Amino acid sequence: MLSGRRILLVIGGGVAAYKALDLIRRLKERGAAVRCVMTAGAQEFVTPLSAAALSQEKVFTDLFSLTDEADIGHIRLSRESDLVVVAPATADLMAKAASGLANDLASNILLATDKPVLMAPAMNPRMWAHPATRRNLATLAADGVLFVGPNAGSMAERGESGVGRMAEPLEIVAAVEAALAGGAKPPAPSVAWRDVIYQGAEAALAGGAKPPAPSVAWRDVIYQGAGPAPPPAPGRLPPQGPLAGMRVLVTSGPTHEPIDPVRYIANRSSGRQGHAIAAAAAQAGARVTLVSGPVNLPDPPGVRVVKVETAREMLQAVEAALPADAAVFTAAVADWRVAGAAGEKIKKTADGAPPALALVENPDILAAVSQMASGRPKLVVGFAAETEKVLEHAKAKLARKGCDWIVANDVSPESGVMGGERNTVHLVTAEGVEDWPTMNKDEVARRLVARIADALARAGAGA
Ligand code: CTP
Hints:
It is built from 17 helices and 21 strands.
């Protein structure tokens, strides 16, 4: 439920703008207050009057409207919300937000907001696949912007299909709920910018601050005097980041093991840690396949997601996704499944006797990959979820499964890890144990990915 939550909905100028009207309705149904901002492009597709009627609020369209600025400025618009949702997020709006442009009300809000931002991109598949959009996506994701969709399907343009359709309104609602429940953070100013702001211009000048230097890439273009570079293959980020050119496989979430067609055995894993690792690896430039059990999370941007239900399906998907340079097994795989799950719903019997469920062991995916005779990833990382004797069990698991590292965490009920935001982990390797401070799951993911990049670089260098 979203009762009492305030959503600032920025409607961009695309055909999918009509779905934003349904989104307003769905958010309102769940008790949210929705205030809309429409770009000039959006008003070509839907009218501010429709958005106002559905949201029962004034709709804001103009940066320089004196009455609006006197009445409620763009800073207040975003401050008075819990979450800024951009739907549809057009290629143009994403580009503006990624570069910090602010020449209309929508882009001003995105630059000025101190609230988390969730974008639902929608555009033609070629625009979505273009390296410029990929770069903007990576920049926005690194700034902390959340994404839902786009989905694959047919486009408004006749005969075109591919990835670019805006997520459906109910998918966006689920992402809004997840963002608000997960305590998403606003895009934070980077340390460098904080320094400039805090020190002030005089201090910067006194300290002999240097003008911004052109990057190597730009210098090359300038010196070589070359014409435009050949366009990279559509849909690929030009290799950037410490994992550029590497393939990373991640498993995430729980598995569901059927008892009959309507019941299953599951566990409390939310998938947040595994999804965060996949997102961080993609941001570091890796080609990432995420094999995920059933979770209530949006797909991480720039990641190939393979959705499975059972442990056996997960093993198959993992095998199909290999080879990889590194594999991280974060999934809480069910250790057992029901032998001979019933084909029909199991009914209560007249004598009231409960059915006996015979369990059989599931394949151990981490052990299977760790012990592959050929094609084993250079680095195999397991997680150990323990409720007691955390390090002792983790060390035993490292040896038993044959993986390179174990990330051990305490999942006792009092730790709040299962389904929670924060994690306290220990990295167990052949060299010893590192205790990491308590961090949120995104930070754990970024730190682990940095360690993986470092280990792969050493392995590549033959160290
Ligand atoms: N794992 C796996 N396949 C399984 C069970 C576990 O790939 N069938 C992986 C998990 O993804 C995790 C690691 O093995 O990386 C340890 O999982 P955990 O549940 O802590 O350990 P188990 O092997 O199930 O051992 P136990 O239940 O005895 O603690």
